[in-house]
Each structure stands twice: as C-alpha cells, then as structure tokens.
Amino acid sequence: MSSHQHCDLSWINRAVQIIESDYQRSADTHLIKLDNHAFDGVDIYLKDESTHPTGSLKHRLARSLFLYALCNGWIGENTPVIESSSGSTAVSEAYFARLLGLPFIAVMPKSTAKSKIQQIEFYGGKAHLVDRSDQIYAESHRLAKELNGHYMDQFTYAERATDWRGNNNIANSIFDQMKLECHPIPSWIVMSPGTGGTSATIGRFIRYQQYSTKLCVVDPEHSVFFDYYQSGDANITLNRGSHIEGIGRPRVEPSFIPGVVDDMIKVADAHSIVTMQWLHQHLGRRVGPSTGTNLYGVFMLAKQMVERGEKGSIVTLLCDSGERYLDTYYNPQWVSETIGDISESRNHLQQLLS
Asked: Is there a single domain that holds both residue 322 and residue 252?
C-alpha cells in the first residue's frame, strides 16, 4: 500500500467522474440460456462476462478497486499503480489506469498467456514478470515501496471494494435478468475462486436479499481453497500455481469468505479443459478455461438435482473469451504437455451428458 499522501480533492472528484461516466456508457452483460437435453427440468444459464470492454469478469473488479482506492485517498494524480495478477485483472486495471492517465505495472508469473501481456501493453501498462505465481505478492509490495506507488492488492481488497448489498453488482444483475424465467430464483449459482471476491459478493447478496439460492464454489487442482473450506486451516500453502489460468491460488486469500459458501467441488484440470471444449462446440465461440471449471460444476449439480427429482435453474459465469488462450488451452500440444491425456475426461463428460 502507498504511504499516506494528501491527494488533491478536485483531481479525485474528476477521476471518480471519469470512471462513473465510463460505466454509464457500458451495457450490462448477457445471460445466455444453454440448450440442455441432458438434465431434464434443470435450466442452465451463463452470465457472459466476456463482453466487457476489457473482455472479462475482472472489468467489474478493476472498476471497484479503482473507486475504492480513489475514495480512500490511496491514489493521487501521479501515483503509479501496481497489481499482482495472473492476467485478466491486470488487463482491466491497465484500462482504468489509462483512463486516469496513471502509470500501471502488473506483476505476473512468466507463464501468463502472451496475449494478456500484449493487452496490458496495449492499454499502456507494463508487465513485470516473476518465475513463480507465489512470488507476485512480495514483488508487488517491493515495487510499490520503491516507486512510491500504490499496490492495489486485489487478493485482499476484492471482497471489500464491491458493494454486495446491491448497487449494480453482478449478483443483482443475475437476479434481475432471471425475473421472467421459468425458475426465476436459481437453485444454485456456481463460481470459481481467483481472489474469492465474486463468490463473496454473490453469497452475501443472496443472504441479504433472503433468497433460497445456494452458492457452490468450484476449485481447480493445485489450489488451496477447497482444502481450506474443508479444514478451516488458513495457513495451507502450495509451492506451485493452478494450471487453470485466473482461478485457484497457492495460498488462502483474504477475500475468500468460506462462510457464504454452501458447497465446494474440486474439479480436475482435464475435466475443466474438456468442458471448455464442449462449450466451444456448443456456443460456436471460444471461452476461457475457468468457464470450463464453472460449467463442469454446474453439470455435477444438475445431475444430482435430476437424481433427486428436483426441477430448477442453475446460473454460472462465462468469465472470459477463449481468444486469449489460442496458444495454450486451445493448442493440443500444450494441453498434452501441461495437463496430460484428456481422453478419459472426454469420455466421462460424454457419459455425464448422455
């Protein structure tokens, strides 16, 4: 975090106005109903967050983080902004930093998709690469101190920066868009954790509005959230990052709030990839790998609902477009080298959907 700086109030007012007017120009994102023949009586919806100006769900988070930092007086007219990110948040923050004319540096693991680094640079930001994903935090702190900048720290502030009571947040938007559907109050909303901020917002909103909807969080391999949820041990760490870019963490992040989560499912990487590929065929356009993780969780819950004879709806998020991952998750050679053989998972998915 930056040292206390007395920011010029007129500049802050102007900065907030710039971000708010950008929001005013933006439309809401679509809620797509999936054609679903496998799970009779269960309607499945995808909230398509890939249509934001910066192409992902993280556009909402970046906007909230900038407003939070501005209103706390942490960012002034020339403050360099530093963020630790595995990609999408940094792309979105670079966009808002450019709107405000601020220098932006993203501290990211070397494994981050090249196209994300190019997008950060497109918006005038710089990528600062480290060897491993668990090194991004300390390096971000160090850079912020050295440059007298502000470390945005999405992993701490994601759950605080968004107003979960309403006020145009993603949960509010989902329930508004579901109003005319056959099952307007979803049985489940499914989300994967990166910071944990979106699941915190959705879970709190559900409780605040007194809905009967349950929140299921799906965690990829090589991530600590599922184990933390089971054990309550916040000190669990891993010495490597998740293979599913943008979700899963090697340590328990402060923004992950287990008390708002009703269930968690651990999803194998191969299941995430084949579900992503299935959705690509099904929608006629590419989606990112975390959407595969989300949708696999939806299929598991839908199967359980059908087995219990329940009818209802399940909503999940299409987090970003697959165009960012052409050289990784859509490259069969990369998949076989990084994830391994996915043919068994493909058979498993076919059985699940038959």
From this structure: yes
User: Are residues 174 and 46 in contact, defined by beta-carbon separation less than 8 angstroms?
Assistant: no
Check residue 166 and give its pLDDT.
Answer: 72
pLDDT digits (tens, 9 = 90+) for 8-38: 899 999 999 999 999 999 999 999 999 988 9
Give the number of domains in the chain.
2
Using the 3D structure, point to which of 116, 143, 158 is the last residue of a domain. Answer: 158
Supply 308's token pair. Answer: 């219990």
Residues 149 and 234 in one domain: no
Does 152 share its domain with 172? Answer: no
End-to-end CA distance of the chain: 52
> In terms of domains, do 253 and 310 share one?
yes
- 232-239 contact pairs (CB < 8 A, 24+): 232/258, 237/134, 238/134, 239/132, 239/134
Distance CA 67, CA 12 (A): 10
Domain boundary among the residues 98, 129, 158 is at 158
Give mean pLDDT, residues 39-59.
Answer: 96
Q: How far apart are CA 80 and CA 45, in angstroms?
A: 39
pLDDT category at 2 given cuts 50, 70, 90 is: very low
**43 and 100 belong to one structural domain:** no
